[in-house]
């Protein structure tokens, strides 16, 4: 006997990265930021009046919306706060997809997308990336109502230019929304913000989990034209972000100096990590995110993943087509990266 709908009963579900209980490990498996959030975030939480907890929070996170609109130089009405970027993905799939309206995305990409499609009982049209990780031609013609492009893409770290994504938005404009998942865009050189002013079918997903070191807070936001924001507001939970999260996220986005310093540190470490891995014989593409995807010598990624974990070093392994010979490694601090490289050196010698 099952109480669940057939699609839920047969669903494998999304597998989040392993969260070890021990803290004395090198944790490079879930793309968290290795440095703490801005000190202003903890200060904002300490100063939160209890009144903010007694009452319901602002339904549209007005304080955050205002702060984000000043940082981005856009109207607050084009921003919607969400309980982590994943919340926005759920809202978008519920808003635009059903049995007759498919979702489409290039693969390999974020493994949550097909899970959301299964839950919503819509088709998931998966179109493989070509070798260069540009937009696959078939995506311009795809019969879908929601097209999702993760940029920078996870887990490849590859990046598609805003011009190219603008051409896709134009091609889809009469039939589909283009959601550009920019969870990792803080680590890239440019982004697609301008497309949200130019096109009425573009939604950006932004996350405070990575660039702002706030994965534990659960906060992100959408940027889109006002009518898309208004439509998705009907679908979201009324109070989808809580009062503590609004206060913390507002403080974080207001401290742009700390944010930029943090990002530059990661980019510097990314360059060193990429070089060190290549020196060890791993095949690593240039990444525009806070992780790198590395093909292991002889393709034995599963064994290497296990051996690293036994030594307290956690990286991510996906037993999926095109990924089973690779490891996704989050860029850590200098010391964490050095520990990884030292251990890999030993393991590869054996
Ligand atoms: C590609 C991608 N999009 C969205 C998210 C959602 O991020 P969050 O819900 O932590 O904001 C993640 C998280 O890992 C991700 O990798």
Overall pLDDT score: 96
Q: What distance separates the N and C termini?
A: 51 Å
* Shape annotation: globular
Query: How many DSSP helices?
Result: 14
CATH architecture of the largest domain: 3-Layer(aba) Sandwich
Q: Remind me, CATH topology of the largest domain?
A: Aspartate Aminotransferase, domain 2
Number of strands: 12
What does this structure look like?
- By secondary structure, the chain is α/β, with parallel strands linked by helices.
- The protein has 2 domains: 6-30 and 257-349, Aspartate Aminotransferase, domain 1; 39-255, Type I PLP-dependent aspartate aminotransferase-like (Major domain) (Aspartate Aminotransferase, domain 2, 3-Layer(aba) Sandwich).
- The protein has helices spanning 6-9, 39-46, 51-54, 62-72, 85-96, 112-120, 137-141, 162-172, 193-198, 226-233, 243-254, 256-279, 301-310, 334-349; strands at 26-27, 79-82, 103-107, 124-128, 146-150, 177-181, 202-207, 220-223, 283-284, 291-295, 313-314, 326-330.
- Strand 6, helix 9 (193-198) and strand 7 (202-207) form a beta-alpha-beta unit.
- The longest helix is centred in the C-terminal third of the chain and has 24 residues, at 256-279.
- Bound molecules: pyridoxal-5'-phosphate.
- The site of pyridoxal-5'-phosphate has 13 residues, from helix 5.
- The site of pyridoxal-5'-phosphate (PLP) has 13 residues, from helix 5.
């Amino acid at each position: 006997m099952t109480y669940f709908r057939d699609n839920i009963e047969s669903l494998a579900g999304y597998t989040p990265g392993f969260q070890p209980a021990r803290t004395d490990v090198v944790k490079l498996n879930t793309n968290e930021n290795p440095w703490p959030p801005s000190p202003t975030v903890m200060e904002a939480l300490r100063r939160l009046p209890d009144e903010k907890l007694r009452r319901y929070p602002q339904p549209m996170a007005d304080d955050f919306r205002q702060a984000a609109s000043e940082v981005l130089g856009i109207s607050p009405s084009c921003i919607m706060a969400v309980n982590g970027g994943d919340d926005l993905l759920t809202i978008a799939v519920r808003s635009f997809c059903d049995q007759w309206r498919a979702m489409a995305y290039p693969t390999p990409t974020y493994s949550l997308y097909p899970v959301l499609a299964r839950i919503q009982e819509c088709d998931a049209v998966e179109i493989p990336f070509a070798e260069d990780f540009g937009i696959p031609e078939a995506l311009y013609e795809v019969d879908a109502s929601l097209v999702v492009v993760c940029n920078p893409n996870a887990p490849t770290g590859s990046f598609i230019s805003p011009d190219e994504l603008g051409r896709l938005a134009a091609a889809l404009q009469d039939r589909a929304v283009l959601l550009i998942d920019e969870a990792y865009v803080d680590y890239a050189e440019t982004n697609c913000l301008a497309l949200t002013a130019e096109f009425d079918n573009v939604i950006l997903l932004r996350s405070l989990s990575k660039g702002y070191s706030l994965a534990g807070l659960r906060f992100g936001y959408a940027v889109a034209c006002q009518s898309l924001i208004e439509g998705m507001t009907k679908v979201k939970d009324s109070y989808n972000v809580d009062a503590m999260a609004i206060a913390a996220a507002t403080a974080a986005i207001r401290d742009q100096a700390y944010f930029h310093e943090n990002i530059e540190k990661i980019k510097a470490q990314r360059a060193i990590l990429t070089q060190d891995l290549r020196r060890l014989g791993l095949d690593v593409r240039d990444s525009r995110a806070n992780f790198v995807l590395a093909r292991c010598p002889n393709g034995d990624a599963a064994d290497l993943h296990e051996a690293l974990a036994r030594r307290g070093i956690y990286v991510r392994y996906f037993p999926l087509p095109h990924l089973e010979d690779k490891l996704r490694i989050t860029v850590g601090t200098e010391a964490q990266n050095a520990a990884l490289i030292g251990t890999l050196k030993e393991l590869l010698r054996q």
